[in-house]
Every structure is written in structure tokens, then in C-alpha cells.
Amino acid sequence: MQTLPLPAVELLTAFRGRLAELQFPLPGPTAAAAEHLRTASLAQLDDYLIPRREHLGAPLLAIVGGSTGAGKSTLVNSLIGRELTPASTLRPTTRSPLLVAAPADEKWFRSGPVLPGLTRSDAQTQSASGATVLGIATDPQVPEQLALLDTPDIDSVVAENRALARQLLEAGDLWLFVTTAARYADQVAWELLAEAAHRQLTVAVVLNRVPPGAAEPITEDLTRLLGQRGLAGTPIFTVEETTLTGGLIPAASLAPLTGWLRDLAGDRARREQVIRQSLVGAIDQLAEHAEDLAQAKEEQEAQVREWEAQIERAFANARRQILVETGDGAWLRAEVLARWQDFVGTSDVFRTLEGWTGAVRDRVGAWFRGRPDPAQVQEELTSGLSTIVVNEVEQAWISGAARPGPALDHAQLQQEADQLVATWQRELLGLVRTAAPGKRQRARLVSLGLNTATVALMLVVFATTGGLVGAELAVAGGSAVVGQKLLETIFGEQAVRNLARQGADLLSDRVSELTDRWAEQLRAPLAELNAGVGSEELSTWAKRLRGGAQ
Ligand SMILES: Nc1nc2c(ncn2[C@@H]2O[C@H](COP(=O)(O)OP(=O)(O)OP(=O)(O)O)[C@@H](O)[C@H]2O)c(=O)[nH]1
Ligand SMILES: [Mg+2]
């Protein structure tokens, strides 16, 4: 006897709502299986759990199920004493289910909430759309409170038949398993019986077409098999092979079964126990499914987390690389640097503040006016920096390209990289300008040119951010050193150190902003994949269904 409290119908409805929203956006075998399970769970909730939980006192539904040709239709006809549903030698015969209820119970099945996916009809239909039609008939021979549902065969060659038979078994309170003396050991039937046992569905076996005198050994064997499958105590009704009269099994041969069904129908407490047991089993199964779904979802979440970490790593690397590469000088054309170094570096006048003369100013100015002029050096630096930024972001974007996400917008990236460089240059210019508060400093800065000072500062910053180690960096390093000296003659050593540090911080900030933005472009669609019903929520639902955590 089950004493566990049943979850409230509101809980089932709420869970149904969440299941309807649950998604497995990453394709794969696990997702396909999970999606299948989700659909099946929704059907089970709609077809059976919710209506049954809401109407515990509604008539009991006995599913007449079994292999094709076992005599299911013949049995239903015989129980009511007339040929209601066609039985035949054609296999399989029954294509759409037919429910027969006492006239008083008709309303419940015709317009009630059970099996809402099936369209009601007055007769059994054999049409192609038969799989979605539920025939409903009434007969006074059927006891009140216990309807019979003749179903397609469970092991049909017709796939829809098989699927429908299973769906109907899930929607029943009781399974009348019809088999024959010749076929009771069939594989498919036992798989379904094991599922029924797991679901705690009450089962009664009708062993049809038993040759005279063979009832005892067959019943013994069947009892043993049922015991092995967790169905000990299942009643077995043997029906001896007889000649059918008018397509019906003689009433006398069915007397024990008829009596059992009538007793059950008339005993409210037993009926409710059968219903409750089926409900508890089905809810337990639903909780198991919720756990399986949680696990499948967790796999997807873990995959998304891994992709997020990949993006994080790739863009952190891009950030680092941009700063390292800009500092190593390899990207600057040597000739441009060499001219800069030759000219500015050999000007001994920069060693002392006193040496700052009009002549020097003219020489520097001439160098910048000549080739390359400051705009050209500036162009070399800025386009180089922009290229490095673009390349590194592209590489970060491509690494782990298997993950879902938008395509890289090259034009947009180029534009943002150019913007980054322009912004940073403006900021350096601002730094240089405010670093010359004195009259004399300002005068020197003006005579050198704000842009020239900014170019010099850029080189110093690159040397600072990249660290400049190794022999091949000598050119860039030298250029930085002369640039630094040039600046020092104007601002002094400490001020230039500060300028370089501030400039490096600004560059690092601008680069971080850009890489963050682009990383976010890849992260955002991933975050969407993990939005909605998650694995933790599903685990909580499993516990709630089992009456645990509220
Ligand atoms: N002699 C005899 N024939 C039976 C008996 N039960 C069923 N049959 C015959 O076996 C054949 C199949 O019976 P059905 O009732 O159509 O079997 P079913 O289980 O409904 O088959 P499907 O609808 O295909 O799943 C029919 O020709 C019946 O007349 C029985 O107890 N004795
Ligand atoms: Mg049939």
C-alpha cells in the first residue's frame, strides 16, 4: 500500500510549464535523446498525470494491450458480448484505439482531459490518420468506473502502432496484458512488462488460446517469469482454446476475468489504490526523467562553460600579445627607425638642456620635413599598431571556431582598431601637452612640434610595454632610447618616466576595452544557449516531484 503523499496538481502543472520551455540547443546524440525524453514526459503529463492527479475519482482506465493477433479485440468484444471492434486474421488489425465505457462514464472520456492529443470519434477508424483518433463507444455490459481500451499491437510492424501502443500504456491505470500460450515469452512484451513493473502499474495477464490440459505448466512458467521481472502476484487469467461463436469467446471461459474486473470496478478503495499506485509510479518515473534531463542539460552547460573559458583565454592572450608585439619593434620598418635614430640619436645637443638651440630645432624639423616626415613615422606606428590589434583579435576569434557564434566582421574590426589607435594618440598628445607646464618647456615643445613629441612618446611606450629584450630589438630599442632622450631634454627624466607609464596604461586600457568588446560578441550568444531552464532547476524539480525540497 502506497502511503507517500502525491504532489499537488499545481506542482505538476508548473513543472509542465518549465519542461515546455526546456531546450537543448547544442545538437548531438545526447541532445536528441534528451529531447525525446522531454517530449515523452510532456505527453505523459498531458495524457495522464495532470488529468489523473486532478480527478482521482474519475473512472479507471484499463488498457488492453499485447502482441498482434493475441486476441485483444476479440477479448474486448467478448467481454461486452458483441462485435464492437473488428477482429480478424489480417495482421495487424487494430490501427486506432477504441475505448468502451459504461454509458454513465462516457462524458468523462469523451470530453474529459484524458489523452487530449487524440481526436474523439464515434467508431474505430482505419484511416491513415487513425493514429491520432480515439474511438469511443459505450456498452451497458461494461461496469461503471472501469473502461476498457483496445489498442494497436505493442510489437507492430507499423511504427505508429508501436508508438501509440506505448503512449496508451503510459496513460492507463491498469494493463490487461493479452498474450497467447504460444507467444507469452516474446521479447517486446517482456520489455514493456519490465517497464510497467518499474512504473508500478497494476498488471493482469490474460493468457489466451491455451490448449486443453496445458494450463497448469504454462501458468507455472508464466508465474515464474513474472516473478523474475518484479511482477510477482500478478493475476493470470487463462482462457482455453475454443471455437469462437459469432467471433466471441464463450462467456463461461471469461467468467474469472469478468468477475475480477467487476469486483475492482465496484470497490472504490481498491480502485483508488490502483490509481494511486499508477500515479506514484508514473511520478517517480517522471522524477527520474527530470534527473536524466538535468544530466543532459549539465553536459550542454559544461560545453558552454568550456567555450566561455576558451574565449576568455584566447582574448587574454590577444591582449598580452598586442602589448608584447608592439614592444618588440619587428613590425616597424627598420629604415624608418634607422633614420629616426641616426638623426635624433647622434644629436649630442640633446644631452643637455643648454644644447637646445634653434639649430637643433631646425635639424629635427628638417628631418621630419624630409623623408620620412613625422606624419610618415606616425603612420608607420599607427597603422602597424592597428594591424597588430586586428591580427590578434582575428586569431582569438578563430581559435575554437567550432563553437556557435557570429562571423567576424572584418570591416568593423579594422574600424575599431583604427579608432583605438586614434584615441590613444589623442590621449598621448594630451599627456604631452599637460606635461609641459613651464613657459620654457612649452616653448621647446612648440618648437619641436607636438606631433614629434607624441611620436617619440609612442616609441618609448612600446619599449616599456614590450620589455624589449633580445638582440633583434636593438633597432627599436635604440629608437626608443633616442626618443626618450629627446623628451627628457624637454620634460626631465622623472616626467618622461611618468609619461611612459601613463601612456602604457592608457594603451593597455584601450586594448582591453577592444578585446573585451570582441570577446563579448562571442560570449553573448553562448550565454543565451545556457539561458532558461537549467540543470540545477531540473534536479530541484526531481526532488520536488519526489516530495523532497519545496
Ligand atoms: N479460435 C480462437 N480464435 C481466436 C481467439 N482469440 C482470437 N482469435 C482469432 O485470432 C485472430 C486475431 O484476433 P484479434 O482479436 O484480431 O487480435 P488482436 O490482438 O486484436 O490483434 P491486433 O488488432 O492486430 O493487434 C482473429 O482471427 C480471431 O478470430 C480464441 O480465443 N479462439
Ligand atoms: Mg485488435
Highlighted features:
binds guanosine-5'-triphosphate; 18 helices; binds magnesium ion; alpha/beta; single chain
Describe this structure in words.
- Strand 7, helix 7 and strand 8 form a beta-alpha-beta unit.
- About 5% of the residues have low confidence.
- The chain has 550 residues and is of the alpha/beta class.
- The chain contains 18 helices and 8 strands.
- It binds guanosine-5'-triphosphate (GTP) and magnesium ion.
- The site of magnesium ion has 6 residues, from helix 3.
What's the helix and strand layout?
Blueprint: H1 9-21, H2 29-54, E1 60-66, H3 72-80, E2 98-101, H4 106-111, E3 119-121, E4 133-138, E5 146-150, H5 159-170, E6 174-180, H6 187-198, E7 202-210, H7 215-228, E8 236-240, H8 251-266, H9 268-327, H10 334-345, H11 358-369, H12 374-398, H13 410-434, H14 439-448, H15 450-466, H16 474-491, H17 493-529, H18 535-545
Parallel strand pairs: 1-5, 1-6, 2-4, 3-4, 6-7, 7-8
Antiparallel strand pairs: 2-5
This protein binds guanosine-5'-triphosphate and magnesium ion (MG).
Provide a concise account of the structure shown.
The chain has 550 residues and is of the alpha/beta class. Helix content is 61%, strand content 8%. It has helices at residues 9-21, 29-54, 72-80, 106-111, 159-170, 187-198, 215-228, 251-266, 268-327, 334-345, 358-369, 374-398, 410-434, 439-448, 450-466, 474-491, 493-529, 535-545; strands spanning 60-66, 98-101, 119-121, 133-138, 146-150, 174-180, 202-210, 236-240.
